[in-house]
Amino acid sequence: KELLKRFWDKYEKGKNFMDIPVCEENPEEESKNSGGWHDPVDNPQITLYMQSGNEWAKYAAFGYTRKETRKYGQHQGLDIFAIEGTNVYACLKGKVVTAEAKGSYGKIIIIEISDTDQLKIFKERKRNYTLKYSKDGEEEKGEGFSDSGKIYFRYAHLSEISVEKGTTVASGIIIGKSGTTGVPGGTCGPHVHFEIASSLSGKMLENRINPGFYVHYKNDSSITNEEKKTQTDRKNKGKK
Questions:
Q1: Beta-carbon neighbour count of residue 1 at 10 Å?
Q2: 3-state secondary structure 53-103
Q3: What mean pLDDT comes out for the span 41-69?
Q4: How does pLDDT run across 71-106, given as a tens digit for each residue?
Q5: Which of 62, 94, 154, 237 could serve as a FRET partner for 195 with CA atoms 20 to 30 Å apart?
Q6: Which of 62, 66, 40 minimizes the C-alpha distance to 219?
């Protein structure tokens, strides 16, 4: 109706119909998709099941949560449940500094955030997150982390990489698909291993912060029965 009204108004004023733009940008939509934070996957949830299929959500949290299976027990990121082929997004606008297969990370993308406005959004995104698995070794951050300079996002175990090293990606753009690469023998709990760091180097938890302060994910006590069923059904399909 609005478009017809504009045509009629133009007709009454004796103007050419070809001057009327049929498609226009929606300022509200453009604003919604520009610059803000986007979680690595839609509806982020902690991964409930380990590679073996045992239910142990704390194993997916950041910190020294893997003492049963690793010498020092470190886990440098957050494992966000994702059925293979799930869209993976750039959290903020930044430069792709790594887009390759890399050891136990599998296919991995690293995005560097250096723009002042984007770093401001990052700082403002931080919430008052209470460590859910603190008794099991979950930590706030590792030694050396600082949000006063560049920030790096790591997305690991992808099945597909849709961006190239050296390119700049916008917040919310699909950068790849989730998978199980880098996990020997596959897993019953597919996920995106997501890290936030202030340096590309650092052993153990060095220069890293718990992604839970920024990714507002659901833990094992807040996911719905339907969401748990989805994870359980995937677990029951076995390692892939």
A1: 5
A2: CCECHHHHCCECCCCCCCCCCCECCEEEECCCCCEEECCCCEEEEEEEECH
A3: 95
A4: 778 999 999 999 999 999 999 999 999 999 999 999
A5: 237
A6: 62
pTM: 0.85
Residue 80, strand partner residues = 46, 192
What's the confidence (pLDDT) of residue 54?
96
Phi and psi, residue 192, nearest 5°: -100, 120
User: By the 8 A CB rule, do 91 and 171 touch?
Assistant: yes
Tokens matching residue 75: 């886990």
- Cα separation, 156 vs 145, whole angstroms: 20
Q: State both tokens at 201.
A: 């180097």
Measure the CA–CA gap between 159 and 108, rounded to whole angstroms: 9
Res. 14: pLDDT tops 60: no
- Here the tokens at position 122 are 């990052």
* Selection from 38, 58, 37 nearest residue 47 by Cα: 58
Per-residue model confidence as pLDDT tens digits over 117-164? 999 999 999 999 999 999 999 999 999 999 999 999 999 999 999 999
Work out the number of other CB atoms within 10 angstroms of the CB of residue 11. Answer: 12
